[in-house]
């Protein structure tokens, strides 16, 4: 197709409403017009994104071309065992160069997949100011990664590359709360009516992609940057874990799950006590029959999962037994099996109605009261986010559980309480990244009725 024809097509597509564009995409898919499908997706993204949506200084037609190119590449999914083996390489200079090279080639691909999928959002969603802000953050990060020079021999590349990763991590620090606030505004206005299920599928994929990029960045920084290096919790002063010990970047090769569970429960208890003036006790139960051997995982991910679930359990218990003389304990059972490490969290917080169970992992449902303010400045700082109310805690906790091949499930009894089951891979070789790809088949599944994209890959 000539440039003139492409320009005419873009102008035509700009005038089409959303339903007409979706119909053309559907026809292309049904008739297996693969070339037409790719062209249509690019044109639809370009027609709107190059007009109203892009507010990124320096965005050019060449960058648009590169974005299309990178989004066509497959992502490299990493396993915990591969990350452990790489992190333990004795030649640290060679390992650093390999890590920089991997990030420099892999992360633009991951960013491109996320950006292209953001462009499939309805126009009114992508145009919402806070969501549009997040969209342009990702464009800026793609520019930063693409423009950064390849690995030279020697020089100050170490510090410059570290600064680049730190800059991108800081830019996206408030992504979740900013996106959530934008979505909540649209939902409150009634602009998302009938699209909640589709947008829940989209958010699962978007937030999983974000987890994957941040993990790769943080793993590199923990391995090769002194100020980001993990410390031995039992060490004193500046004694840091040395190469060859259980810590490999942000991965712990021998996680003490009970200690992390106790930290998460203690912090959730403090937060509950601060809000309600009372908090239930908790018990951690370790059955004597356990599969021998270390459990390898990312402690920060495990803590996030546990803390989000325990916040819910503590809050529900305090509210349900508001007029009781005492509160029932929250119980955590931790069992390591041959394939899975399972954690069960049980509370007596009243449970949830059976008809509401399907909503539990929706980003548009919360059992807690919602934050009162919708002011942009109130919730764009993650440190000022409320204990509950946005509806993101439980679905995001499930994403962290699934990131390395695990899962999170709930069983609830209305009038009694809830059991949460966290399943994580206990064998490092089996724990491989779960990442969404920008392709027609995956997107079509969650756009047309499949609620859980991971189960339908």
Please give a structural write-up.
With about 450 residues, the protein is α+β, with helices and mostly antiparallel strands. The chain is about 50% helix and about 10% strand. The chain is built from 15 helices and seven strands. It has helices spanning about 5-15, 20-30, 35-55, 60-70, 80-85, 90-120, 125, 130-145, 155-170, 175-190, 195-225, 255-275, 300-320, 395-405, 440-445; strands at about 245-250, 250, 280-285, 330-335, 340-345, 405-415, 415-425. The chain has a five-stranded mixed beta sheet with strand order 3-4-5-7-6, with helices on one face. It has a two-stranded antiparallel sheet with strand order 1-2. Helix 13 (about 300-320) runs antiparallel to helix 14. The protein is globular.
Brief rundown of the structure:
By secondary structure, the protein is of the alpha+beta class. The chain contains 15 helices and 7 strands.
